[in-house]
Amino acid sequence: MGKKIVVFLVAAVLLAGALGAGSYLFMKHLLGNPNQPGAPVIVYDLKPGTSFWKMTQELEDLGVWKSAKLVRLYAKINKRAARIKIGEYEISGQQSPRQILELFTSGKGKPRVVTIPEGDNIVDVANAVELAGLATKDVFLRAARNPELIQKYIGVKADSFEGYLFPETYNFSKYTTVESILQAMVAQFESQYQRALAEVPASERPSRIKDWDRHRIVTMASLIEKETGAPQERPMISSVFFNRLDQGMKLQTDPTILYGKFVASGSMPNNISKADLLAPSTYNTYVIFGLPPGPICNPGLDAMKAALRPVISKNLFFVSKNDGTHVFTENYKAHEKAVNFYQKDARQRQGKSWRDLKK
């Protein structure tokens, strides 16, 4: 569209006056047609502080639409200029100016995807957020350990949001704040926690849970989550833990030792030593009785349901079969036999890995 034609159209609209309805329909028709059919898709970054005038001019310069002035006039009549939302948007000349304005006012920009697998801890989440280009790992962790935000969104006395960043795939925009990311993950956690409560009647829950608050239930769920990757085993893992608690036994679960070392050092170790089993720590369930002070990862729905509804059994022990599953036993003699077979016999370990469970 040439400059003379643009000037003529704008003048025509302005001079229409009382006949504005007809002029408006004519302008709406013009802006409802694509400018460049077949044009490639571009990503336009509508940054904070960008004026509507600047945005319309930049898109004219990029060839997305032919007349920034006409778009401004249309947006003024429709009061859309003030409703534009920041973000990254995938647009092209195949879209009409009117469609592009609707996209900008909807806020449905190009998503920054963050996927949190079940059992990830806050550092894993921080890495995922950084990978998506939303915030650096350090910035996210500072917020995830901020006492004011912890109290504001989960209302417990805790060192971090650990346990409350629900495993899920999230779509954020480039300019989503870290606080908003935490808020979204906690909201999803709360929704799934309430779902778990609804799906497991109080009559089916362990008697000792009646005295537990949400934080302790989520802590138990995190232990279950970290002990097995086999979904069918979670209720039995839960059974072992509750049976041990009922008999006054220590839980003796290795992931708590690893997490305690992580809290102390800031990095997650790959292995534990015999000395680690005896090292004093509020998370070391080989030393302390009962649960650690808080979750050691972010559990999923099934782990939370298993914490609320363990299967009924007399099992007190379990040992890895080296393939991601376990052997469960009722007494130490049977447990020792399983350990000797699966852990001390190198032939039972050869060529096996817990990672095989996920294949």
Structure explained in plain terms:
There is one protein chain. By secondary structure, this protein is mainly alpha-helical. It has 16 helices and 6 strands. The strands form 3 sheets. It has a two-stranded antiparallel sheet with strand order 1-2. The protein has a two-stranded antiparallel ribbon with strand order 3-4. A two-stranded antiparallel ribbon has the order 5-6. A hairpin with a 5-residue loop joins strand 5 and strand 6. The chain is elongated, with a radius of gyration of 29 Å.
- Which class of secondary structure composition applies to the elements? mainly alpha
Oligomerization state of this entry?
single chain
Please state the average pLDDT score.
Answer: 87
* N-to-C CA distance: 58 Å
What proportion strand? 5-15%
Counted by DSSP, the helix tally is 16
Q: What's the total count of β strands?
A: 6
- The outline comes out as elongated
Strand order of the largest sheet: 1-2
The share of residues in helices is 40-55%
